[in-house]
Amino acid sequence: MAMLDFYQTHAKDFFNQTINVDMHNIYQPFLENLPSGKQIISDIGCGSGRDSVFFAKQGFQVMAIDGSQNLIELAKQNHPTIDWQCLAFNEIKNQNWHNKFTGIWACASLLHVPFDELPNILNDLLEMLKPNGILYASFKYGDSEREKDGRFFVI
């Protein structure tokens, strides 16, 4: 897949561009809507691991998933206790994660899924949530699919 090739090839640059972006204004509504009790968060398309590390520092159990092994290796250096998984989006359904997570964080990652595949991926993610669990996903504005600089986007 060309999109994963981009992140494999440009892992270090992407890591450096994203690791220090301040996301606190986006974290807060997510945190406020998590169900009560022990938090188990999955960061889907974790990239640099920035968000995974933030959630781990809040005391949450975190599983971070990305399709780029090179990004996973860079991210592991910041927080080795996170459960780092190298999986493509379409491999998630093959895992035994039914009702496992209180929250799923998919920040600017699902925008790489073709529109016709998105409902199945979202259903797979929703099945991973515990009752009352929440899912955060962000996308670019628009209503089309396109490729830019070697990456596919749904916008």
UniProtKB/TrEMBL annotation:
<protein>
    <submittedName>
        <fullName>Tellurite resistance protein-related protein</fullName>
    </submittedName>
</protein>
<feature type="domain" description="Methyltransferase">
    <location>
        <begin position="42"/>
        <end position="133"/>
    </location>
</feature>
<keyword id="KW-0808">Transferase</keyword>
<dbReference type="Pfam" id="PF13649">
    <property type="entry name" value="Methyltransf_25"/>
</dbReference>
<dbReference type="GO" id="GO:0008168">
    <property type="term" value="F:methyltransferase activity"/>
</dbReference>
<dbReference type="InterPro" id="IPR029063">
    <property type="entry name" value="SAM-dependent_MTases_sf"/>
</dbReference>
<dbReference type="GO" id="GO:0032259">
    <property type="term" value="P:methylation"/>
</dbReference>
<keyword id="KW-0489">Methyltransferase</keyword>
<dbReference type="InterPro" id="IPR041698">
    <property type="entry name" value="Methyltransf_25"/>
</dbReference>
